[in-house]
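Example 4.3 (complexes with small molecules)
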Amino acid sequence: MRKSVVAIVGKPNVGKSTIFNRLVGERISIVEDTPGVTRDRIYAEAEWLNTKFDLIDTGGIEIGDEPLLVQMRQQAEIAIDEADVIIFMVNGREGITAADEEVAKILYKTNKPVVLAVNKIDNPEMNDRIYDFYTLGFGEPYPISGTHGLGLGDMLDEVIKHFPDKTMEDADDDMIRFSLIGRPNVGKSSLVNAILGEDRVIVSEIAGTTRDAVDTRFKKDGEEFVIIDTAGMRKKGKIYETTEKYSVVRALRAIERSDVVLVVIDAETGIIEQDKRIAGYAHEAGKAIVIVVNKWDAIEVDDKTMKKFEEDIRREFQFLDYAPVVFLSAKTKKRLHTLMPNIIEASENHAKRVQTNVLNEVIMDALAMNPAPTVKGKKLKLFYATQVSVKPPTFVVFVNDPELMHFSYERFLENRIRDAFGFEGTPIRIYARKRS
Ligand code: GDP
Ligand code: GDP
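Answer. The structure with guanosine-5'-diphosphate bound is encoded below.
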């Protein structure tokens, strides 16, 4: 199910990032050590009353060298585009300023719900300071204190109340949703056009969840697919391309809603650092991944080129060793037919469930082949394994002491599971848990 998105806007220093960090908390990422993956503290998952949502701190999106006022306006535009609900934050110690009014002016243009949060109300005696803010025209102001953690519950109750009804979106779950990510000019839009070429049947254009996002649904080879959000990306053009952090937010949004992510690389320019970072996001999100090397027509190839390129990819994207690589040209459509079968396979593996008894046979065989290590005189014991979820396939291994399960042994088990069940195209996750 798609998570709702909440964006925080407001002029600098009202406390946006303080609130963001408080709501997001310290979440340790599973692939914290993945090289090339920078932690992005402007976009993260938060939770209130068992409802998970994605939170964006638009204050962290720097827009080139633009003057502050322009940046604030654009951040508000981004919030309007990306979010289901907007938290408009002001400073209760200051009263309404011209900068608040500038932000308000942009927010008046949207029909999306705006919750007005008056921050820095550090004690109840200050509560009467919120009344001035009614004149901003966003209804009841919510007093909060980021530093003291006050009022956040009431504010979040109001935010959650406005989350869109999701029942509609769950209807067609057989469709394979995929998105294309990659830095500008690798050929994402050309590839979308090529995929949606003559032989496709566009079933409909689903009005997306955000104003600009239009998902395209089509049928091919008897399967139904949805291409996510690329229209929105194309349309956004200027801000999207010139603002690294904004393009990250958009890519993360698209990834979030996908089953399969196509990581598009340009054969002509080869792999650069930015490609790795983008691929890291998809990996981290636990999505199925197909690596697409586009513009294959533009380079000279002999019978070794493909192999050599694939070796480069394996070296540069070590964390994506499960992802198939497809070489093609969006322009000439050469080898384009190899793409959809890879998307379908990755998607099937992403949703695959294995039988518990077979899984345990595989684990026991693995143990016999390579006994668990002894760490500081303590030996890891494995009792039982089970698959707890799909998308991505996630396994829990019950052990005597999870501390003894080291990365290398986990890696070994992952490889055994992959050999036995074939999870090509999807990450899998293994957690060690203490048998109680
Ligand atoms: P941002 O620029 O909107 O992201 O604001 P920050 O989160 O960086 O906060 C700006 C300053 O306001 C920092 O010095 C914070 O410590 C302070 N601040 C944030 N929340 C509160 C609050 O609830 N009460 C008080 N008194 N100060 C706060
Ligand atoms: P995007 O920014 O990733 O959406 O990239 P575009 O689809 O706009 O393509 C960027 C440029 O690369 C355009 O000039 C395209 O014509 C060109 N291009 C895209 N795909 C191919 C391809 O397969 N071969 C060649 N030679 N050029 C391509």
